[in-house]
Amino acid sequence: MRPVAAALLALSTVAAGPALAQGTAPTVADGAVLEVSATGKTTRVPDIATISAGVVTQSQTAAQALSDNARNMARVLAALKAAGVQPRDIATANVSLQPQYRYESGQAPVITGYQAGNSISIRFRDIAKAGRILDILVAQGANQINGPNLSIDQPDAALDEARADAVKRARGRADLYARAAGLSVARILSISEGGESNVPPPMMYRVAAAPMAGAAADTSIAAGETDVTATVVVRFLLK
């Protein structure tokens, strides 16, 4: 993807206050200011996958719906522990209890039962194992899966690479504008950061190809690559 860039060329004038007071002509700087915005990019393979897994249960009473839900979620949490997922990587995301209604024309809604839900956020530090663990969770009662959100655990080094690339692109573009105007870049006046991003690739689940007869297909997750970008705004003095 080509970086978004914009440039503004404007002549800078500097008036000498004391000289004006004495009636002399103002001094005009013999340079021009060029402002360039440039985006730098680098890529990384994500090393963190965050997935939401939940249990939804239904029963005629609220108490029974919650009880069934708690029992199934306990099995899910035990399965995560047995698979080696650390407690720090598991967090409750949502707990819900909602009545279920039957609607008939001309009559007030009638409660027919209750639906309980409990979802957790799971952070996988080994993306290759995430799909297999998801299959285990489903076998233990998880019936709601969302994600994954793929990211970089420690993006600082990648962001620094993107920043350096952004400054390099800005300088190259400044040289181009200067040559077109018959000038040259004298020095940098200022640098400011316009933003940064760690854009995840499209979320993807993949089923292993051609399982043997009688064998269940395994869920797998493709990590792909993540674009890490940084935008800078640089002001150059041209002479």
CATH topology of the largest domain: Translation Initiation Factor IF3
Largest sheet: 4 strands, antiparallel
Which CATH first-tier class of the largest domain would you pick? Answer: Alpha Beta
**What is the H level of CATH, i.e. the homologous superfamily of the largest domain?**
Protein of unknown function (DUF541), domain 1
Q: Calculate the terminal CA-CA distance, rounded to whole Å.
A: 32 Å
Overall shape:
elongated
The fraction of residues assigned to DSSP E strands is: 35-45%
Supply the CATH architecture of the largest domain: 2-Layer Sandwich
How many domains make up the 3D coordinates?
A: 2
| Unreliable stretches covering 5 or more consecutive residues | 1-28, 201-215
What would the average pLDDT be, to the nearest integer? 82
Radius of gyration (CA) equals 30 Å
Number of helices: 4
**How many strands in all?**
10
Helix content: 25-40%
Q: State the order of secondary-structure elements, H for helix, E for strand.
A: EHEEHEEHEHEEEE
Walkthrough of the structure:
- The protein is α+β, with helices and mostly antiparallel strands and 239 residues long.
- The chain folds into 2 domains: 6-45 and 154-238, Translation Initiation Factor IF3, CATH 3.30.110; 48-151, Protein of unknown function (DUF541), domain 2 (Alpha-Beta Plaits, 2-Layer Sandwich), CATH 3.30.70.2970.
- The chain has helices at residues 17-21, 62-82, 127-139, 156-180, and strands spanning 6-11, 32-44, 48-59, 90-102, 110-124, 144-151, 185-199, 205-207, 219-221, 226-238.
- The strands form 3 sheets. The protein has a 4-stranded antiparallel beta sheet with strand order 1-2-10-7.
- The radius of gyration is 30 Å and the shape is elongated.
